[in-house]
Amino acid sequence: MGRGPGACVGGGCTCVNPRVRRGKGETGRATACYNSGMSTVSLQDLERNPAALLDRVEAGESLVVVRDGRPVAELRPVVAAPVAPRPFGLCAGEFTVPDDFDAPLPNDILREFEGR
């Protein structure tokens, strides 16, 4: 776990160097860069202790999950929507409730609902 190795211009991102194939069996190194405000965790770390990583995310940390040195997912805190009561009369005048709204349904419609 931790920041990926390497440095980007200005230090504004995190780099990892996964092994990649370059024709005819040659193996080279490629560099993938992403936001430095995020720590990297391996897929194995995520599988080994997901609750601990979710605790870190819940505390406000953003994580990038890497597999074979490549970023594949981002875990970040969800911004909770403010909880406020709905305003009274939000849809006033938009629709009317018919007088027979809670009347029993006709038998043919009931049979359709019951699959008979």
Summarize the SSE layout with pairings.
Layout lengths: L12 E4 L2 E4 L3 E4 L2 E4 L2 E5 H6 L1 H9 L3 E6 L2 E6 L31 H8 L2
Parallel strand pairs: 5-6
Antiparallel strand pairs: 1-4, 2-3, 6-7
Can you characterise this structure?
- Mean pLDDT is 76; it is low at 1-32.
- With 116 residues, the protein is α+β, with helices and mostly antiparallel strands.
- Strands 5-6-7 form a three-stranded mixed β-sheet. The protein has a two-stranded antiparallel sheet with strand order 1-4.
- The chain is 20% helix and 28% strand.
**Structural class determined from secondary elements:** alpha+beta
**Topology as a string of helices (H) and strands (E):** EEEEEHHEEH
Low-confidence stretches: 1-32
User: Rounded to an integer, what's the Rg over CA atoms?
Assistant: 27 Å
Portion in helices: 10-25%
State the end-to-end distance: 59 Å
Q: Looking at the structure, what is the overall shape? A: elongated
Largest sheet properties:
3 strands, mixed
List the keywords:
3-stranded mixed sheet, 7 strands, alpha+beta, 116 residues, two-stranded antiparallel ribbon
